[in-house]
Automatic annotation (TrEMBL):
Keyword list, A-Z: DNA-binding, Sigma factor, Transcription, Transcription regulation
Organism of this sequence: Nocardioides hankookensis
Keyword Ribosomal protein (UniProt): no
Domain RNA polymerase sigma-70 region: 16-81
This protein's record includes keyword Protein biosynthesis: no
Similarity section: Belongs to the sigma-70 factor family. ECF subfamily.
Alphabetical list of InterPro entries matching this protein: RNA_pol_sigma-70-like (IPR039425), RNA_pol_sigma-70_dom (IPR014284), RNA_pol_sigma-E_actinobac (IPR014325), RNA_pol_sigma70_r2 (IPR007627), RNA_pol_sigma70_r4_t2 (IPR013249), RNA_pol_sigma_r2 (IPR013325), RNA_pol_sigma_r3/r4-like (IPR013324), WH-like_DNA-bd_sf (IPR036388)
NCBIfam families: SigE-fam_strep, sigma70-ECF
Domain RNA polymerase sigma factor 70 region 4 type: 104-155
Protein name, UniProt field: SigE family RNA polymerase sigma factor
Signal peptide limits: none
Xref: Pfam families: Sigma70_r2, Sigma70_r4_2
Lineage start: Bacteria, Bacillati, Actinomycetota, Actinomycetes, Propionibacteriales
Amino acid sequence: MRRVSGRDEAFTSYVSQRHRHLLRTAYLLCGDLHLAEDLVQNTLVKLYMAWPRAARADNVDAYVRRVLVNAHLDETRRPWRRERVVSDSTLGASAPAHDLAGRDELTRALRELPERQRAVVVLRHYWGLSIRETAEDLKISTGTVKSQTAKALTSLAHSLQACEQ
């Protein structure tokens, strides 16, 4: 029987507490549950490999969030690495998707935003990061965060008004 190390216990504890939050963040970033699950899985693999360093960080959530956002940005920058989902009736029915975002108008409007604007909105308003923290995570200037936030919020407002009519 294999003994569980202190490293594994600490990592497992962190993941069990934060997995749902990470999955929801990934879903809000990419708008696809299956891709979100892949992003979280890749993030957790990277986190496990760097756990001794991550556990010593002042803010483990910030460390993990940065890994998650970078994994998402890598996927959007390198389209040749993405798998293409195809419908194949021989595989049978797929399992029902988890309803992470409530399928409401806000989530649909958020998915319509360009990648960078969506990332800024998720980091600023879902994670509650400051402009500076968002800029650091996305490796952009604070001015870009402000302008992308303004554009995204304007687009969201227009989309939500159209849904009400």
